[in-house]
Fold this sequence. Notes:
- This protein has 13 helices and 21 strands.
- The chain has helices at 9-22, 49-55, 83-89, 94-102, 113-121, 135-149, 166-174, 178-201, 208-221, 284-302, 312-327, 335-341, 428-437; strands spanning 25-30, 36-38, 41-42, 63-68, 73-78, 106-109, 126-129, 161-164, 226-227, 232-235, 256-261, 263-265, 268-269, 272-277, 367-368, 371-372, 380-383, 386-389, 402-405, 408-412, 417-419.
- β4 (63-68) and β5 (73-78) form a beta hairpin.
- The chain has 438 residues and is of the alpha+beta class.
- It folds into 2 domains: 8-170, Creatine Amidinohydrolase, Chain A, domain 1 (3-Layer(aba) Sandwich); 175-436, Creatine Amidinohydrolase (Alpha-Beta Complex).
- The longest helix is centred in the middle third of the chain and has 24 residues, at 178-201.
- Glycine binds at residues 229, 260, 271, 354, 360, 384, 407.
Amino acid sequence: MTRTAPDTAPYTERRKHLQDKMQRGIALIPTAPEVARNADAHYDYRHDSHFYYLTGFAEPGAVLVVLAGEEPQSILFCREKDAEREVWDGFRYGPDAATVHFGFDAAYPIEQLDEKLVELMGNQAALFYPIGMDAVWDARILKLREAVKAKARTGIRAPNEVRDVREPLNEMRLFKDAHELDIMRNAAKISTGAHRRAMRFTRPGQYEYEVEAELLHEFCRYGARHPAYTSIVAGGANACTLHYVGNKARLSDGDLLLIDAGCELESYASDITRTFPVNGRFGAAQKDVYEIVLAAQAAAIAVAKPVNSWNAPHEAALRVLAQGFIDLKLCKGSVEAVLESESYKQFYMHRTGHWLGMDVHDVGEYKIDSNWRPLQSGMVLTVEPGCYIRPSDNVPRELWNIGIRIEDDVLITSNGNEVLTQAAPKTVSEIEEVMRHE
Length: 438
Ligand code: GLY
Ligand code: MN
Ligand code: MN
């Protein structure tokens, strides 16, 4: 928890935007609970992304209430100041300071939430909250609504309509504002530096966790204390396990190393994959496969622009991969036949990307009315084709256990895109150069 209050402008702007989308009613957005790890130890605290997006407030034990309509208001419920607890756990704002520092209309102690909510819900037409996210909240909120209903004889009505507040919020978060893009560019910069550092460091005989340590060091020394997801550091055959996070094996001369790692900076994720030779030089078969994945990624990035559909990059990558798999004798027949039969799925079984933002697999619909949505300026997505060749009778032996993925973070701009993670070496010559000289 930092004592430095953020610039309130982006957050007040977003709350206003939410009020416009709600039109009328009351919204309630709780932050995340603290989670016990074992005994008295907790996992490092991570606030709820929706809550933080609207507040910039990083303490646990807080709830945001937003009123839309004739008298719009933003009200924070948070922990009270507590001199004794602050000696143990550190500074907390308390309602008075939070009101001023974060630009709320009012703030109250979290203990008063239920009582105040019964008051605030009265005569509101609609109630917005994250329905179904947490069974305890579901029960609590519906019980409070019943308490408002019990006041019917005094002429007070309870909200008739209950809606998921994540619907408008997901759509808002899909389009990144200037404040978010600044942070995402910085997160990308730190993560590209970490991949470069890993390439410089790696030698045969090291353990995967030694390389992981280099990544974490580079994240942390620039203020990104946490990775956005568990780093995948997968040497040789381990790269063919998509979610390999063991990171314990020894790196062999002649193998490739796949690293999928990105830092979280100020609540925003970066997500980069690079694959490079442990000894600094691609072998012939490795290079053949690598160039195909690289070409697939280039084809996908080329079509990641307005107003192509969300699926255009995936389709473009698949065509290049299908032709490459035929050339490598991994698949038989024409490109059309490989796409039609989906025989490529033996070697490429995931999709080519996802939205990226506060969450690594960020919020936002991929389809609208059952059609892939068009790409629009301000969206950020990953482009991450790969090829994973497990030993099999139908596979040439020299290709066994090659696993390659290349992943970048791409911002859609008004007439094209900006690759936020461009600085991480990617071509065969760039990678071999970095590993030779740095
Ligand atoms: N690192 C998670 C992903 O690439 O989707
Ligand atoms: Mn990734
Ligand atoms: Mn990804």
